[in-house]
């Protein structure tokens, strides 16, 4: 079975803090993705990566950056967290046309 | 840009009934894939069913089937003999073929199966 794990299920941070969300997959997938999920908006793509050290902006990259130093790990970074970044963050990796999702991190920024 | 629209924010049916979730999309592409993903409460999102746009035959996975109307850009999901475990958020998603495998999601439909 494909396994995608995320470092935290719940996270509470303060405005202005630097936040790291980690995602690890164990299936040697080349593509990895970060989404945020908000009620009524579905999932929106923040960033994706198609290889180590390669990244591309998604639909809502503002306020976020990413890092992929190893194939199995894809990190989402909030340089200076703001309250409008309170959301559920989902990581995914893909093989062929199927994406496999992690359990999500519910981030609250106070 | 592609868009995906799910016009039913919430639905509720009785156990064993059949329910249909609606999805429409907009694209100028000819090569694409469509998906339904399921997100149970507090659990991981999983793939329910997928459809290649070039295939006319509707995809089926056990109790789940789709009605793919390419000309109308409609992709509905039918759940037959619904079960309590089908209670979840359901997302319709679009992926352009031959690209970077990015998904465009609809807003989601919250489906509740009542005993």
What portion of the residues of chain B fall into strands of 2 or more residues?
over 45%
Number of E-type strands of chain A: 11
- What would you report as the Rg of chain B, rounded to the nearest angstrom? 14 Å
The pLDDT mean of chain A sits at 94
Main sheet of chain A? 7 strands, mixed
Q: How would you sum up the global shape of chain B?
A: globular
The major pleated sheet of chain B works out as: 6 strands, mixed
- Estimate the strand proportion of chain A: over 45%
What is the number of helical segments of chain A per DSSP (H or I, 4+ residues)?
0
Helix content of chain B: under 10%
Q: Count the E strands of chain B.
A: 12
Shape of chain A: globular
The overall average pLDDT of chain B, rounded, is 94
SSE order of chain B, one letter for each helix or strand: EEEEEEEEEEEE
Largest interface: A-B, 24 and 23 residues
Structural features, described:
Chain A has 110 residues and is mostly beta strands. Helices cover 0% and strands 60% of the residues of chain A. Chain A contains no helices and 11 strands. In chain A, the strands form 2 sheets. In chain A, strands 2, 4, 5, 6, 9, 10 and 11 form a 7-stranded mixed β-sheet that branches. Chain A has a 4-stranded antiparallel β-sheet with strand order 1-3-8-7, with no helix packed on it. The model of chain A has no long low-confidence stretch (mean pLDDT 94). Chain B is mostly beta strands and 115 residues long. Chain B has strands spanning 3-5, 10-14, 19-21, 24-26, 32-39, 46-52, 60-61, 64-69, 74-79, 88-96, 103-105, 109-114. In chain B, strands 2, 5, 6, 10, 11 and 12 form a 6-stranded mixed β-sheet that branches. Chain B has a 4-stranded antiparallel β-sheet with strand order 3-9-8-7, with no helix packed on it. A two-stranded antiparallel sheet of chain B has the order 1-4. In chain B, β7 and β8 form a beta hairpin. The radius of gyration of chain B is 14 Å and the shape is globular. In chain B, 31% of the residues are buried. Chains A and B meet through β4, β5, β9 and β10 of A and β6 and β11 of B.
